[in-house]
Design brief:
It comes from Streptantibioticus parmotrematis. Residues 5-82 form the 2Fe-2S ferredoxin-type domain. Keywords: Iron, Metal-binding, Oxidoreductase. This is 2Fe-2S iron-sulfur cluster binding domain-containing protein. By secondary structure, the protein is of the alpha+beta class. It has two domains: 4-81, Beta-grasp domain (Ubiquitin-like (UB roll), Roll); 90-171, DNA polymerase, domain 1. Helices cover 30% and strands 16% of the residues. The chain contains five helices and five strands; from the N terminus they run E-E-H-E-E-E-H-H-H-H. It has a five-stranded mixed sheet, sandwiched between helices. Helix 2 packs across helix 5 (160-171) and helix 3 (107-122) runs parallel beside helix 5.
Length: 172
């Protein structure tokens, strides 16, 4: 065994195959081998969310924590894959409209996380702040719900008020 494996993924809808070191994280594969620079290496410990991407639809993951070899056959969507040609995804447009970014370093991860958070709430997944007596069905996109669902994504500039407003607009 030489410590390498072939991995095949779909990245933003396009097939990608490569022989990689088994220790390669999804984040490093995306940035260093696939040329996808939206996901950022912030903390490299899964604590800041700058590397958040969507896996197999709308499940958010921290790309810095996943070994790429464990994802053979998976579909990975980064912030670059959300837009439809020149037309921004509704969450991307809402971030622009609400000025939901300052330096922009965390923005790709924030946007991917917001897409997943909205999908989770629409699917009726409760969060820790969802009232226990909430009937089954979509969860109301209150500011508290959005803050809780986005709590894994840090913004060192403090654009949280605008991020919550952007997510809330799309979630409604």
């Amino acid at each position: 065994m030489d410590g390498t494996s072939e991995v095949g993924l779909r990245i933003n809808g396009k097939p990608f195959s490569r022989v990689i070191d088994n220790r390669t994280t999804l984040l490093d594969l995306l940035r260093e081998q696939a040329g996808v620079t939206g996901p950022k290496k912030g903390c490299d410990h899964g604590q800041c969310g700058a590397c958040t991407v969507l896996l197999d639809g709308d499940r958010r993951v921290n790309a810095c924590l996943l070994l790429a070899v464990s994802l053979d056959g998976a579909d990975v969507t980064t912030v670059e894959g959300l837009a439809d040609g020149d037309r921004l995804h509704p969450v991307q447009q809402a971030f622009v409209d609400h000025d939901g970014f300052q330096c922009g370093f965390c923005t790709p991860g924030q946007i991917c996380s917001a897409v997943a958070a909205i999908a989770e709430a629409r699917a009726g997944w409760p969060s820790v702040v969802t009232p226990p007596d909430t009937p089954p069905g979509p969860v109301e996109p209150t500011a508290a719900e959005i803050r809780e669902r986005m709590s894994g994504n840090l913004c060192r500039c403090g654009a949280y008020v605008n991020i919550v407003a952007a997510v809330r607009e799309v979630a409604r």
